[in-house]
Amino acid sequence: MGGGVAGLALGTFLQRSGIRCVILEKHSREYVENRQRAGALDARGVRMLHEWGVGEAVEGAAHDSSDEPMPLIIDGEEREWKMDDHEDAESVFLPQQILVRNLIRVFLRDGGDLRFEADDISLDGLDTEHPRVRYRDVAGSTAVIGCDFVAGSDGHQGVSRAAIPDGFLTCHTHEFGYAWLTVMTEVPAHPLAVMAVHSRGFAAQITRGPNASRVYLQCPVTDTIEDWPDERVWTELGKRFGGPVPRGPIISKQVVPLRGVVFSPMSYGRLHLLGDAAHLISPMSAEGMSLALHDAEKLAQAIIRQVEKDDGSLLESYSDTCLTHTWERQAAAISMTDTMHDAGDITYRGEFLKHVARANLENLLRPRRH
Questions:
Q1: In sequence order, what are the residues at sequence separation of 6 or more whose Cβ sits closer than 8 angstroms to the Cβ of residue 172?
Q2: Which part of the chain is the FAD-binding domain (predicted)?
Q3: SS3 of the chain: helix, strand, coil, percent, to 5
Q4: DSSP-assigned letters across all residues of 71-125
């Protein structure tokens, strides 16, 4: 259920292990391949794709080719991140639409069954040995798929999690108390990622390909896109970056409240949730795709063990395994998000925590050059 990173990765891993699967995606192929989302993949995710024989999925990834680390601008002063860890060198900037496009190509080339524009999807029999998925195909006909397992990888608003009976899941949520204005632009990012801590709020510009970038500006959760005309976006970015910034066409804007969400457990009967259907993580962490790949690999390994060895132990522990990893990443994401935002605008959390955040931030940066 869902042809995003989680669903496509899972389908690819299963198919390469000789296990038949069907991927249902409610949108068209064109829509999915051009949907703009997060653009980073950690070293573990990169290695995972290579280990499964689909390293070509990261074709089009961008590495910073300069000798200088990607900057953090603090009150107009450019600082350098500590980049000594080999893990940092293996991570890549990879816009989601490029990864999705590559995974679709690989899955279909290898004979995968991927059905776009699947509408009115419903699930039943999830607590039986033979769940069923009903949907209306692109021709308007109703189809029914009988299966052994259902993977709910259809995002936070998808139908998979909604098919679980009320009261079974627990939703854990953390609201940060501020939002990001996210702005898609036709302006290249150079370097590939620049972030700024400023008394006016956090700001960033991250690559989304050779001719595009996304701008992020911290703002109150009550702001609307009407509060942010194009001129204000560029002016505010320049103020927080401490100087003039290249301008260009703005494609879209959205106000996104920052929060973390985790649903527990991640399994109900023969349905297993993964990716955004199971959890949302602060975008400050840039770990959405990496978490999706982690879930996909763990579920693939569990299903393969069940099919090949009639051993359901990994399926039984799938939720606990993924939740342990998810909470570890949520903890890191909250720490980084608080540090980057508390260190700037004191109107959210006060002067005391600003100094605490600045001290924490110094531990992540190289010493100033004299």
A1: 261, 262, 263, 264
A2: 2-328
A3: 40, 25, 35
A4: EEEETTEEEEB---SHHHHH-EE--HHHHHHHHHHHHHHTT-EEE-S-EEEEEE-
The Cα 254–Cα 330 span in angstroms is: 23
Least confident of 94-103, 167-176, 251-260, 296-305: 94-103
Three-state SS at 254: strand
**Which of 211, 208, 207 is closest to 193 using CA atoms?**
207
Angle of the 313-342 helix axis to the 351-362 helix axis, nearest 10:
110
Say if CB 13 and CB 103 are below 8 A apart. no
Distance of CA 96 to the CA centre of its chain: 8
Contact at 8 Å (CB) between 244 and 69?
no
- The pLDDT tens digits for 111-153 are 999 999 999 999 999 999 999 999 999 899 999 999 999 999 9
Provide the token pair at 236: 């505010």
| Length of the chain as a residue count | 370
Q: Are 344 and 218 in contact (CB under 8 A)?
A: yes
For 227-254, b/e burial (b = at least 16 CB within 10 A) is ebeeeebbebbebbbeeebeeeebeebe
Q: Which domains does the chain have, with CATH numbers?
A: 5-63+91-172+260-336 (3.50.50.60), 176-258+342-362 (3.30.9.10)
Asked if 264 and 278 touch (Cβ cutoff 8 Å), the reply is: no
pLDDT of residue 69: 60
Amino acid at the residue 202: F
**93 to 39, 59, 107, 156, 344: CA distances (angstroms):** 5, 11, 22, 23, 26
Cis amide bond preceding 265, omega within 30: yes
Residue 10 CB partners (closer than 8 Å, separation 6+): 21, 151, 153, 274, 296, 299, 300
Torsion of CA 271, 291, 221, 355, to 10 degrees: 140
Question: Does residue 159 surpass a pLDDT of 70?
Answer: yes
